[in-house]
Amino acid sequence: MTSVPQNLSTRLAPPAASGARRHHPGYGRWTPFFFLAPAVIVLFSIGIYPTLFAIATSFRRYNITRRADQQDGFPFVGFDNYFTVLHDRGFWDSLLLTGKFYLSVVPVQIALGILIALMLHRPGWSLLRAITRVSLVVPLATTYAVVGLIGRLIFNRDFGVANQFMSWLGVSSSDWLGNPTGAFLAIVVMDIWQWTPFVALIFLAGLSMVPVEIEEAARLETKSPWALLRYVQLPYMLPGLTAILILRSADVLKLFDTVFVMTRGGPGAATDLISIYVQRVGFKVFDLGLASAQAILLLILTIVLSRLYIHIFYQEIE
Amino acid sequence: MAATRIGSLLHALGLLIVLAFALFPFYWMVTSSLKDQTELLASPPVWFFHPTLSNYMDIFADTKVTTAVLNSLIVAVSTTLLSVILGTPAAYALARFEFRGKADLWFWFISNRMISPIVLALPVYLLSRQVGLLNTRLVLVLIYLTFNLPIVVWICTDQFRSIPPDLEQSARLEGASQFDIFWRIYLPLGLPGVAVSAIFAFIFSWNELLYALVLITSQGLKTAPVVATNFMSGYELPWGKIMATGTVIVLPVTVFAMLVSRHMIRGLTMGATK
């Protein structure tokens, strides 16, 4: 098979001949390439090229406030930036805080998500169920930055509605965003609001894959909703759980907008999640060499996560 | 009998609580945008008030918000179109052709979903500063492709796979070119998937903050989320204007998302339930 006139020869070849070629049934060796090339070239040049640039930058002392025409320019410093990052308490603290945030939101989202999915799946109240299901896309479509703005209003010390709710429960009002625990709780609440629907919808999709006959037979067999959940519904929801754990970890590592608007990482470092921290080093301190090293370490972490995700979910696609 | 009735009532109550939970922040934003400053700053907050459109008059009197909304619209529509034009042929190739490295290529597309924008924000900032793309809408259109293109490829590959391959075979027998097959069979039949992926691309671009924040500094080119967050400076915050701007940004997208919620939900949960 020569390569160039493939499209042409395929078109001109008699149908029988084209059917006889087992490895390239009806299309040339290069045909996929033409369809793929535009997307691959574009994504490569705007995704990979900057990444390579970041790797190069991470090996230099690259402070944007220095002028490029200064004597030493941007000197090559080897792994210095990486050593600095790995010995930087702030970096580790913000990674730990990101982990703590993940452990604060995800279990709640899973518990609420299962509960909501079961309520949306249960027969009865079909109109109310339909309305509720539709309403779940509202948090998901809300601009993250605006979620942060709403959060600042709701958790305002003087006129926030959160304090009003607390007073109904008999708890005295507090300056949520002004103290470390309150600010952390506030971003946790907003994340739970925004992402619980996603978790619930994934569980619901799993639930709706339970064959109807099996579920009905099980309902006749047992009165206990617990047994139904445990032996019939849960097995269908579990694949979704792994997806949730991995996708949410990638999302938490990415989380920037809402927290940036609500707290800018403060007070102190109470909500200084990893994206906020890297952004500050890069665009406020302008130590781009250091920030690039942090970004590359974050990228490595993300690649490990996404490999894990792909490994678990897409083995069947070859 | 009584037990089932109680169960049913609890079910309805639970659904109502979920409904209230899902809509409350949105409701609070919209109602706050309709309050005047004294009602907004009332402590404890007031739930019943005389709605006024004065905040909307204020933000639309100023060109800042309208320009920002227009910028967002231009960027989001362009990047969505571009990702559909580039992504659908790639999705077709991944769905129907066999070639070496296909699985790896597909994984590469998908893994872009996981990458944090902060990883790319820095080098993209430096590069676009060098080539003079800083403060252009083009740089946003291009950088948004890094998350839009994977979404389009992901959803459309799945959609195109569900189209019966027989159609393609018989079209080929009738002498249709490969591009004809893609253009006249796959695109029209796969339209639901293409539309869903376009909706996602639009919403993600419309909502994006980080890249827009660092790559655009000139006032006339700022996007809507950036302008909304810019209100958050100074001593006395104009909460009415902030919430009105938030509503202008969020309302069209949420209404649209609710209208196509069935497709949205399918797109969102795709891949998680296989």
Classification by helices and strands of chain A? mainly alpha
State the order of secondary-structure elements of chain B, H for helix, E for strand.
HHHHHHHHHHHHHH
C-alpha geometry of chain A: globular
CATH topology of chain B: MetI-like fold
Can you identify the CATH class of chain B? Mainly Alpha
The total number of structural domains of chain A is 2
Could you tell me the strand content of chain B as a percent range? under 5%
Query: How much of the polypeptide of chain A forms β-strand, as a percent range?
Result: under 5%
Distance between the termini of chain A: 24 Å
Structural class of chain B: mainly alpha
Which residues of chain A form runs of ≥5 with pLDDT under 50? 1-22
Number of helices of chain A: 15
Let me know the number of strands of chain B.
0
Q: Remind me, CATH topology of the largest domain in chain A?
A: MetI-like fold
Q: How is the main sheet of chain A built?
A: none
The parts of chain B where pLDDT drops under 50 for at least 5 residues are none
Subcellular location (chain B): Cell membrane
Pfam families (chain B): BPD_transp_1
Transmembrane segments (chain B): 12-30, 73-94, 106-126, 138-160, 181-204, 242-260
Membrane topology (chain B): Multi-pass membrane protein
